[in-house]
């Protein structure tokens, strides 16, 4: 539908009418769009491929927003559609099991860096992770205290997981792999940290693996 630059649009956050969370929305020429997915600065081809798939093959009204540090795809909605979480983009909040699995992987990388590389590298990783949370506008993760809590809580025992969407999870896994590769020097850490998913109930673990195999980060996380 449109490929736009940041100066072409207005982005704001509105309160979800039924949930305790802010929802990012994009405004362009009197139309409103809701975030579907986020890609890193090096994923131009992947972002354009998904945008074309949604617009050309699925007939969705979508915007591809090109920024310096990321690409994002937004689907057209009416604001009253936030009441039931629906929209032309079919975007919905991620299931709790997907968020729990991503938090387990994040914590496994964090622990490996602490155990194998020491406090200095751990401090660098914590700041890099906070930058990712801020860049991706992750709800409930935009302060050092909030990010630290996500690194230390047991996501399987917590009564409430952060209200992230699938686009947030895709960006988190992409950036987590990039950061892990930078800190460890290669991608061999992925299989090791994937073992953390063994703590999940088998049904939830299977749900996550099925989602991962269909995601843009499937190849780097060895989900084949």
Task: Describe it.
By secondary structure, this protein is an alpha+beta fold. 44% of the residues lie in helices and 18% in strands. Strand 3 and strand 4 form a beta hairpin. The longest helix is centred in the middle third of the chain and has 22 residues. About 4% of the residues have low confidence.
Secondary structure elements and pairings:
Elements: E1 2-5, E2 10-15, E3 22-28, E4 31-40, H1 44-57, E5 62-66, E6 70-77, H2 96-117, H3 119-135, H4 144-152, H5 166-184, H6 189-194, H7 202-213
Parallel strand pairs: 1-5
Antiparallel strand pairs: 2-3, 3-4, 4-6, 5-6
Helix pairs in contact: 2-3, 2-5, 3-5
**Poorly predicted parts:** 83-92
Oligomer: single chain
Shape: globular
Q: What's the number of extended β-strand segments?
A: 6
Secondary structure class reads alpha+beta
> Tally the helices: what do you get?
7
Main sheet properties: 6 strands, mixed
In short:
With 224 residues, the chain is of the alpha+beta class. Helix content is 44%, strand content 18%. A 6-stranded mixed sheet has the order 1-5-6-4-3-2.
Brief descriptors of the model:
globular, six-stranded mixed β-sheet, Phosphorylase Kinase, domain 1, 7 helices, alpha+beta, 224 residues
């Amino acid at each position: 539908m449109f490929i736009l630059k940041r100066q072409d649009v207005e982005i704001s956050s509105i309160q979800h009418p039924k949930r305790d969370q802010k929802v990012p929305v994009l405004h362009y020429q009197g139309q409103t769009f809701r975030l579907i997915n986020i890609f890193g600065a090096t994923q131009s081809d992947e972002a354009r491929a998904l945008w074309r798939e949604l617009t050309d093959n699925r007939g969705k009204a979508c915007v591809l927003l090109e920024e310096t540090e990321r690409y994002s795809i937004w689907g057209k909605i009416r604001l009253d559609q936030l009441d039931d979480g629906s929209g032309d983009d079919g975007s919905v909040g991620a299931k709790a099991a997907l968020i729990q699995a991503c938090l387990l992987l994040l914590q496994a990388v964090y622990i490996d860096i602490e155990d194998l590389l020491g406090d200095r590298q751990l401090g660098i990783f914590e700041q890099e992770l906070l930058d990712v949370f801020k860049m991706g506008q992750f709800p409930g993760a935009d302060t050092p205290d909030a990010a630290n809590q996500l690194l230390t809580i047991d996501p399987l025992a917590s009564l409430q997981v952060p209200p992230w969407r699938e686009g947030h999870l895709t960006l988190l896994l992409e950036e987590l792999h990039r950061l892990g590769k930078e800190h460890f020097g290669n991608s061999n850490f992925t299989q090791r940290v994937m073992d953390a998913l063994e703590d999940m109930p088998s049904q939830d673990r299977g749900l996550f693996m099925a989602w991962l195999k269909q995601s843009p980060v499937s190849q780097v996380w060895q989900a084949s």
